Amino acid sequence: MTLMLLALSAALSAPTPPARPDPTADIQINIGRAEWGNFDALVPEPRNLPTGLMLDRVENILRDRECVMRGQSYRRFDITVPWVVQVEPDGRLTRLIVADIGCRPLETFVAELVVELAERGDLRPAPGARTRLYGSDFNFNLTTTR
Known about the structure:
The structure is a single chain. This protein has 3 helices and 4 strands, in the order H-E-H-E-E-H-E. The chain is an alpha+beta fold and 146 residues long. It has a 4-stranded mixed sheet with strand order 1-3-2-4, covered by helices on one side. A hairpin with a 5-residue loop joins strand 2 (76-87) and strand 3 (93-99).
C-alpha cells in the first residue's frame, strides 16, 4: 500500500508536459449568411482531400438523422456548403464564416475541414495581398444504387 501511495505521489508531482497551443484559439468562427460569390478566391494548394472519409461523414450525418435536409438522403445527396475566411498576409486564418444551411453538424464539419486546411498551410492569399476575406465551398455528393 505504501509503495502504491509513493508511486501515486510521484506521478502527481511529476511535471506535466506543456499544453499544445490551440491553433483555433485566435480564429473567430461563425455560421451565417453572405453574398458568397462576392469574395476573392484563394490560391489553391494542389493537394487531394480525403474525399472518401468526407463523404462517409456526411453520409453518417444524414443516415443518423442528425439533421434532415429536403431532397437529401444518406444514399443520395448533393450539398454545397460555402465558406469565407479572413486570411492575414502571413497566411494565418483569423475568421471563418460557414454558410447557414440548416444542418449544424454539417456546418461544424465544414468548419473543422477549413481549420484543418489552414493548419496545413493550404489557405494562402495571393502574393502581396493584404488582410482580406476569401471565399470557397465544399461540395459533397453521393449517389448509390444499393
